[in-house]
Amino acid sequence: MDVYEAAANMIAFSEFMVTAVKVTYGDAADAKAEVAGFDRSCFVTDLVFSVGGSAATIFTALTPQQLWNVVKGAFDLWKHLKGSPPANVTHQGQNVSVTNNSGSILQVRTESLTLVLTDKGAEAVERFVRQGLNHEGYGSLSIETDTDPAVTAEVSVEESAYFVPVSKEAQLSDNTVHMTIVIVAAVFQDGNKWRFSDGASTFSAAIFDGDFLALVNNGARFGKGDVLEVEMHIVQTRSGMKVSVDRSITKVLRHLTPQEQATIF
Questions:
Q1: Given strand 88-92, what is the order of strands in its sheet?
Q2: Which residues sit opposite 35 in a β-bridge?
Q3: pTM above 0.70, yes or no
Q4: Where are the alpha helices (DSSP H) in 119-185?
Q5: Domain spans in the chain, listed from the N-terminal domain onward
Q6: What is the pLDDT of residue 233?
Q7: Fewer beta carbons under 10 A from the terminal one: N or C of the chain?
Q8: How many helices (H) and strands (E) does the chain have?
């Protein structure tokens, strides 16, 4: 890992811990990170966090126990979920029981679940855990405290694949609309999406009209600038704070080449 990659990992880890602090103590908590030192035996970094105005190094007895329980619980939960959203969540006071897709149940603090489901926490942990352990020569990652070995978050290379956003998607809308679009890029490889424009923006869409695909496979001419009149299926979903749109063409009603458009218009 070169110095740029190491710096990126440190930044991602700092962002994760700042998010953990705010999840644990509230948005008003003042959380800042500073590098305290390095260890040459392996890639080890000590960071000092200022929480609520008091300094606490995360590798000493000054570490707030509550914060570490939240962080360790979040790491255990990512490994428990194995990259998939929770199948079920049951609240029990300050704790939650989280069921994964295999039916196994893990109990953690409510703040640990919140940390796993936040966009900032998930994006940061993906960078310093999954991407960080993807570098050759690294076998594991651990976050440790000198005084309490029980409060240790450790991840192997194999487990690092689980450290991704796992917020369950919620469908916001599902509509089929009649519209006219322009081909920006025709893709003739099975399974790949074509690029289109609706006059305001460009987007990708899969084509599921069997009759149209048969024409493509039989050598019919389609290219940039062609106009298609279609039935478009549009599904809008939300995962955490991220909203995404999936488009697919269920039926091509008419196809006009640039020459045919000139004749008509």
A1: 88-92, 95-99, 105-109
A2: 47
A3: no
A4: 119-125
A5: 3-162, 170-264
A6: 96
A7: C
A8: 6, 13
